[in-house]
């Protein structure tokens, strides 16, 4: 198993698994709200309802063009620029501690993502683990995407200036292509 650096690059836990850690300003209830409340979640990731119970439905509504900055998406990411629905099912929900759900449920790309929260004094350690990433191209896209979205979350929570989304996606995708080469 790899060592992890909070607020650093993802680590590859297995061939199909990525893990990110972010040390964020607390309290844990505030970070939980940004994971679970659609009006807060849409500011850094995606809008949409989420039934916070095991077996509950998830409908993440991505509108990446609304995530900051006036720059259009690079051509290679144009397919991610419109409204995209990502359906899932809640697999575990322990308020202020753990949220796990399927990602792209019912598709050939179905995977799982989990968010774990742990208090660290006045801060909160957020661990995002994305598993069952079957193809290398999916792994690279997920790595760059999560890194970019988590940078927006850090900005929302007051950790520095809010970056422009599309330049982040392009930069991190390229970096992960180097870091996670086959």
Ends distance: 18 Å
How are the strands of the biggest sheet laid out side by side?
Answer: 1-2-7-6-5-4-3
Overall mean pLDDT stands at 91
Return the string of H and E elements: EEHHEEEEEHH
Rounded radius of gyration (Å): 15 Å
Query: Runs with pLDDT <50, length 5+?
Result: 1-5
Strand content: 25-35%
How many strand elements? 7
Please state the overall shape, judged from the principal axes of the Cα atoms.
globular
Task: Count the DSSP helices.
Answer: 4
Topology overview:
Blueprint: E1 11-14, E2 17-25, H1 28-36, H2 38-41, E3 57-63, E4 83-94, E5 98-103, E6 111-120, E7 123-131, H3 136-156, H4 165-179
Antiparallel strand pairs: 1-2, 2-7, 3-4, 4-5, 5-6, 6-7
Helix pairs in contact: 3-4
Structure description:
The protein is an alpha+beta fold. It has helices spanning 28-36, 38-41, 136-156, 165-179, and strands spanning 11-14, 17-25, 57-63, 83-94, 98-103, 111-120, 123-131. It has a 7-stranded antiparallel beta sheet with strand order 1-2-7-6-5-4-3, covered by helices on one side. Strand 4 (83-94) and strand 5 form a beta hairpin. Helix 3 packs across helix 4 (165-179). It is globular and about 40 Å long. Residues 1-5 have low confidence and may be disordered.
Describe the structure concisely for a colleague.
The protein has 182 residues and is an alpha+beta fold. It has helices spanning 28-36, 38-41, 136-156, 165-179; strands at residues 11-14, 17-25, 57-63, 83-94, 98-103, 111-120, 123-131.
């Amino acid at each position: 198993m790899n060592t992890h650096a909070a607020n650093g690059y993802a680590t590859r836990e297995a061939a199909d698994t990525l893990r990110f850690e972010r040390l964020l300003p607390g309290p844990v209830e505030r970070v939980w709200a940004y994971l679970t409340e659609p009006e807060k979640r849409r500011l850094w990731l995606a809008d949409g309802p989420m039934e916070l119970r095991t077996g509950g439905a998830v409908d993440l509504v991505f509108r990446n063009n609304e995530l900051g900055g006036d720059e259009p998406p690079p051509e290679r990411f144009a397919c991610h620029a419109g409204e995209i629905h990502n359906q899932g099912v809640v697999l575990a929900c322990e308020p202020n501690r753990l949220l796990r759900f399927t990602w792209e449920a019912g598709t050939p790309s179905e995977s799982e993502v989990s968010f774990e929260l742990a208090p660290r004094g006045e801060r909160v350690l957020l661990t995002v683990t994305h598993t069952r990433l079957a193809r290398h191209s999916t792994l690279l896209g997920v790595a760059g995407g999560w890194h970019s979205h988590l940078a927006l979350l850090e900005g929302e929570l007051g950790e520095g200036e809010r970056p422009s989304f599309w330049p982040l996606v392009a930069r991190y995708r390229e970096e992960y292509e180097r870091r996670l080469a086959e």
